[in-house]
Specification:
27 strands; 7-stranded mixed sheet; 12 helices; RNA-binding; 552 residues; Glutamyl-tRNA Synthetase, domain 2; 25% helix; Ribosomal Protein L25, Chain P; Glutamyl-tRNA Synthetase, domain 3; 24% strand; single chain; alpha/beta
Length: 552
RNA sequence: UGGGGUAUAGCCAAGUUGGUAAGGCAGCGGGUUUUGAUCCCGCGAUUCGUUGGUUCGAGUCCAGCUACCCCAGCCA
């Protein structure tokens, strides 16, 4: 698709342009630093597009760095899934993949530097005591009794920590900053904690792991990151980021800038909540088409280009936001409208019999794959005496606004003939089982010769050639715009977020491959699901067509 | 008077030496159309959270007020 040509300006670009202009940097380096404790979602896509987009626009570099300082929550499967998703989105990181764990040895040395400068100490107060001494938002904290331990003792204790001489929770390394700071994160933050945990990169080499605030800024400096972009909740942490860089012999001075994270209506974008949806089986997995994950969106039928376009359209600011789903949907519709071949599928079939069509006759019609793009070619469409139409497209009686098939009235079968409904057959319950029609044989590819106007057009599938298919009709996962603000977000799950119907699709669709997208004319955009087999086709509805018809 | 942030149309968002409110999504009219789709044309802020002030002139500068978000993990 044609992505927005000129990227909209934003405050980060302005900072970069100023830095480049003033010679603060000759070139920029950014990074995308996910923790491998879950799958990437549309909110990460915003960050990915920002970081990789900036690097590309200013001829800089963008690293992929796994922020893997908490082995208990992370694993290699997430690492691989994340790499896969970044590439699927269309981005390639500079050089090799980086890991914060690559720097564990250096990080340890920098921590030791702080110890030797008297700026860090090993605290043996229990976790509860540490919390007690931290104070509150309005009251200053109090100094730990271990705050004035000698440098020599601290060095020995820190070495012993690394050697596994202490139990988990027995002690931690803390920075000596200011227990009365208005920034809670500056009240002697923990730098290292003890975890006898297996790490997916460093195995059992370490039993002490550095905290995010100590690790991130140093990793940025080691990779020569010029602009370290993160979300708003880290604004306070910037003080600690700068403190660490200033107090160690850092090889560079990276700067952190914060932007607002994405919030999308009718879904949740917090990793904790997404993990819960998966673990408690509210969805089929990380790639469930209702999930806002990259994998879920992909399976739903969203294209990389549509997601990139979305990220361009929402912009980058510091404002809290809740973006309408319609914004995302508009992006995929724009892409698919231009690029998805058309096909016909009937989701809720009712049979019509064309009584004046020769018994035993069938013919092969030709239909364009795209109404406005000749280059997409044509396909063959078998047509016969009996065809399926959408139950919705027929009414025994209706007003003039109903532009479909009505008893005694005419309608055009798309890409085929004009038919007229003559009578209906019903079962004992009064349900319509068959609609008997007649057709005008002289209306193939042209209007009726006597000049009568037929305004309605409906889609159809030939009964003897149509293929049965399972069609997953997806809707929003939650029934409220902001499930995250609900008491318990799982209580707001939309019970009808997935309805599977058995429909009939035109035979050309048997050639589709997994992931292929189509517009089922008049109903929406669909793609062939990963679980589809030649014996049983499965389609996922990506999004409905825009529908401005009011009186339904 | 803890601190850090943000306030421009239903949603997202431009606006940067103060000069008289971009654009996108949604919506509403109209035209084209063998998809109630697409496409095309037209329509929305006397007003920028609010109250004052400075100024010939303020969304942009100053002061006060209000609302909302974030911070008290040995999570990130």
């Amino acid at each position: 698709m044609a992505e927005t040509e000129h990227r909209p300006t934003n405050f980060v670009r302005q900072i970069i342009e100023k830095d480049l202009q003033n010679g603060v940097h000759q070139t920029i380096t950014t990074r995308f630093p996910p923790e491998p404790n879950g799958y990437l979602h549309i909110g990460h896509a915003k960050s990915i597009c920002l970081n990789f987009g900036l690097a590309s626009d200013y001829q800089g570099q963008c690293n992929l760095r796994f922020d893997d300082t908490n082995p208990e929550k992370e694993n290699i499967d997430f690492v691989n899934a994340i790499k896969n998703d970044v590439q699927w989105l269309g981005f390639q990181w500079s050089g090799d993949v980086h890991y914060s764990s690559d720097y564990f040895e250096k990080l340890y040395d920098y921590a030791m530097e702080l110890v030797e400068k008297g700026l860090a100490y090993v605290d043996f107060s229990g976790q509860d005591a540490v919390r007690e001494m931290r104070g509150t938002l309005t009251q200053p904290g109090t100094n730990s009794p271990y705050r004035d331990t000698s440098v020599e003792e601290n060095r020995e204790h820190f070495i012993a920590m690394r050697e596994g001489k202490y139990q988990e929770g027995e002690c931690s390394l803390r920075a000596k900053i200011d227990m009365a700071s208005p920034f809670m994160c500056m009240r002697d933050p923990v730098l290292y904690r003890i975890k006898f945990a297996h790490h997916h990169q460093t195995a059992d080499k370490w039993c002490i792991y550095p905290m995010y605030d100590f690790t991130h800024c140093i990793s940025d400096a080691l990779e020569n990151i010029t602009h370290s972009l993160c979300t708003l909740e880290f604004q306070d942490n910037r003080r600690l980021y700068d403190w660490v860089i200033e107090n160690i012999s850092a090889p560079a001075t990276p700067r952190q800038y914060e932007f607002s994270r994405l919030n999308l209506e009718y879904t949740v974008l917090s990793k904790r909540k997404l993990i819960q949806l998966v673990d408690e089986n509210f969805v089929s997995g990380w790639d469930d088409p209702r999930m806002p994950t990259i994998a879920g969106l992909k399976r739903r039928g969203y294209t990389p280009a549509s997601i990139r376009e979305f990220c361009l359209r929402i912009g980058v600011t510091k404002m809290d936001n809740l973006v309408e789903m319609g914004m995302l949907e508009a992006c995929i519709r724009d892409d698919l409208n231009a690029n998805a071949p058309r096909a016909m599928a009937v989701l809720d079939p009712v049979k019509i019999v064309i009584e004046n069509y020769p018994q035993e006759q069938t013919e092969t019609l030709k239909a364009p794959n795209h109404p406005n793009d000749e280059s997409m070619g044509y396909r063959e469409l078998p047509f016969g005496r009996e065809v399926w139409i959408e139950a919705d497209d027929f009414r025994e009686e209706a007003n003039k606004k109903f532009k479909r098939l009505v008893l005694g009235k005419e309608v055009r079968l798309r890409n085929a003939y004009v038919i007229k409904a003559e009578r209906v057959e019903k079962d004992d319950a009064g349900n319509i089982t068959c609609i008997f029609c007649t057709y005008d044989a002289n209306t193939l590819g042209k209007d009726p010769e006597d000049g009568r106007k037929v305004k309605g057009v409906i889609h159809w599938v030939d009964c003897s050639h149509g293929i049965k298919a399972d069609i997953n009709l997806y809707d929003r996962l939650f029934s409220v715009p902001n499930p995250a603000s609900a008491e318990n977000f799982v209580d707001t799950i939309n019970p009808d977020s997935l309805i599977t119907v058995t429909g009939v699709v035109e035979p050309s669709l048997t050639n589709a491959s997994v992931g292929d997208a189509f517009q089922f004319e008049r109903t929406g955009y669909f793609c062939l699901d990963a679980n589809s087999t030649p014996e049983r086709l499965v389609f996922n509805r990506t999004v409905e067509l825009r529908d401005t018809w009011k009186d339904r």
